[in-house]
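Subject: for your reference before the review

Hello V.,

The reviewers asked for a structural picture of the protein, and I figured it would be easier to keep everything in one thread rather than splitting it across files. Below is the amino acid sequence we used in the manuscript, unchanged from the supplementary table.
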Amino acid sequence: MTFLTYVYCVADDQPNEELKRAQTLSSLTGPHALPFHLKLSVSEPANPNSPYRATIEEYWQSSTNWQRTIDSPTFRQNLIVKDSSRSEQSSGDYYPIWLRNFVTAAIDPLEDAAYWNQISARIVLATTTNGKPSSSCARAQFKIGTPALNNDAFAVICFNSDGTLSSVVRPGYDMEFHDAQVFGKKRIAYRYVDDPEPGTNLVGKVEMLEQIKDGASFPTLIDLAARSSEPIRSASINQMTFDQLASGQPALIWPLVHSGNTSGKLSMFVSADRDGHVREAYPLNSDNAGLQDAVRDQLLKWQLKPAVVGGKRVQVEAPLTFAFLTTQEGVAESSGLVVSSPSVSVANTKPITVSPAIASSLRIKSYAPVYPQTLKERHISGKVELKAVIGTNGQIVSLTPISSNNPDFTTAAITAVQHWTYKPYLLNSAPIEIETTITLNFQAP
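And here is what came back from the structure prediction:
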């Protein structure tokens, strides 16, 4: 059986120091930046014909002298910044979040460093049972939604032992950083991984990163004297504003569930284009992950009122929280209850049981639980065992406590594990649901 141990080391100034170090090492445009030419390709390796593919190329001399080209099937952009002039030409009516995230990760992955300084994050040193340190992480938990209906959301930023970025997770931005190589005084990742939605694994690879000479001329992308196209801008809004824009949209229909909670909360991160069409909807947190696909399919059909900022239409994005109420298959039939549902395929077979070691070998992402503050102050250690059902898409479907020495440890464990993701378990070349046991140890300082 595989055990994970989390040792918590907290220092008030530690997050800022870790952030500064990562900004210096992992950002091409951060401190000690060299003029560079970067070319990055993005693809979905498991699906060569995927619309999730792009080429990003940037020439950069300084923060006031650079140019960028983005080329994807649905969106293309040429952008030039020269002294006080900015010229932009875009084709396509929507700048996707997934594409923007790869641009951010490759150029300046902590351009929103102020975000991490503002939230109540703590540094956590994670170790395995053999005692070898793996990474330090700043974590925060906060509420999204409205005062009347809100849900927990999480932000996690992790650093490798050498101070470079390991991963960043927060609503609207999720990226892993791999294969760092030396570039001047920096260590720049050459491979980026994002899973924007269940079953979709995107990989960005650095095809070229070279230093360019000061004053070197760039290839001509667009004529600065020419009139630029209307820039595509995005605005982050809260749920109350989103609800006003979404007034008149059909209520969500909750399908029957195969297992897990039949009532609770579900949160999604949603983005709409300048005309109000919802273009992306990604899961954040749910009391039953089996409902996420159905909600996503419905949200992508919504048509909002266009959002206007400064007299111009803008893209909008927001984390949303919904309350769900449904019932389990079989229960509805035996009670005579009829629940309308969109066309969603649900497996009717029971999950097969696999060992924790097998399940661990399939795990793609895992996050350490947040140690309950009151228990940590009292130096109380704990252990939680959970029965987990993992769906055909590798997402956690349900979690059931088996044993625990404190309910606060149980809550912390479930809150973290429900965000873990796995490779689908294949039986006769077909993905099936599996059931396993997950054990988390809390070791007090």
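For the response letter, the relevant points are probably these. The mean pLDDT is 82. Residues 4-211 form one domain.

Happy to draft the paragraph if you're swamped.

O.
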